[in-house]
Amino acid sequence: MTIGSMTIGIVIVAAGRGERAGSLQDGPKQYRRIGDRPVIAHTLERFLTWRRSGPIVVVIHPDDEALFAAATAGIQGAAAVITTFGGETRQRSVYEGLRALSGTEATHVMIHDAARPFVDHGVLERVAQALDEGQDGVLPAIPVSDTLKRSGSDGLVHETVPRSGLYAAQTPQSFLLSEIRTAHEKAAALRREDFTDDASIAEWAGLPVTLVEGSVDNIKLTVKRDIAMADEKLSQSLSSAALPDVRTGNGYDVHQLEPGDGVTLCGVFIPHDQKLSGHSDADVALHALTDALLATCGAGDIGDHFPPSDMQWRGAPSKIFLDHAAKIVRERGGTIMNADISLIAEAPKIAPHRQAMRETLCEILGISLDRCSVKATTNEKIGFIGRREGIAAIATATVVYRGDAA
User: Where are the stretches annotated 2-C-methyl-D-erythritol 4-phosphate cytidylyltransferase (predicted)?
Assistant: First the structure.
């Protein structure tokens, strides 16, 4: 999808043999079945259903054409996917994918491992946001939580490595397409085949790489046990005996109107002869939705996290509050499924701005547009809303939590 002058193309690397994931008789790991579907089918669907995906290239092994066709049969949108053959190394396969993508309208690229089938739209949105802000390279990553040791050839621990500032890299790693292709070309010309990921090639080429929040669920299936655990996870979620932990939260907010030049609702500024009074930008819609999300995991309300007495929030955009609530939900094992906002106001008219509001929610929450709803009604000139003294908002959020979520 094109946003402004940016089109984000996708390269999914699926040409490996995956020897560590079992015997060759089991087939390449990207075609093993988890949740009764091939790994690559899960991965590809994550991008096909993402609102900002541009052209998609899947790099496959020359021997896997039939496997790929069978794995993606019946997936909506798969017919438009471009396939190309990879090389002997992942680095070479990525280069071939970049070459194939260069013939499309893509200006930027996300490079993703096919063996990471649990990447979610939240990660993709955070990476895309960094690209929107002009970053040359973007790397989703999570802080290293384990204590790290360095050993010698004698098998003994020689030192404990401080983990402060250390991160585990994930994919998709994203770049300006022309820059990362040039970096790959330089590496190939110098016969450098020792890079373990695309961010390391970018670093070597002098391209700055920015870290964004990854996801603990965005694991790479490497060994046979990983595939078995992924299958168990998906099979349990599909089992009728396993009841999903679906939680619904509600939020309500109201702000007074006063003379001004416009109101901000759902992150969208609407010119008007009044403005909303409040300590931040007084966006009643995002305030109500923030409370709704926090309610799904018992995390208090917006006032607990952003007290009106704290001067740093004076005039602050309410996007900050909603983004904070969404992060809390994710950290506690939640996946945001739906956000619904009802605005109650006599004026201004909401309908002309509803699509922009939904797109803003989609961007902040990292969910698809069809999961974001904004509605509006008047109060039939009754009460303080009817007298145009204020605007109110009611929000509902639906979140599914993992079975092990707190």
Answer: 1-246
Could you tell me the pLDDT band of residue 402, with boundaries at 50, 70 and 90? confident
Q: Which residue has the tokens 């993992």?
A: 402
What integer best gives the mean pLDDT of the chain?
A: 92
Q: Check the annotation: does 184 bind a ligand.
A: no
d(CA 290, CA 138): 27
What is the model's pLDDT at position 17?
A: 81
pLDDT of 73-122, one tens digit each?
A: 989 899 999 999 999 999 999 999 999 999 899 999 999 999 999 999 99
387 annotated to a ligand binding site: yes
287 annotated as belonging to a binding site for a ligand: yes
Task: Domains for the chain: give ranges and CATH numbers.
Answer: 2-148+165-238 (3.90.550.10), 245-401 (3.30.1330.50)
Which is nearest to 392 in space by CA: 343, 329, 348? 343
**In 133-175, which residue ranges form alpha helices assigned H by DSSP?**
none
In sign, the C-alpha dihedral spanning 127, 132, 137, 143 is negative
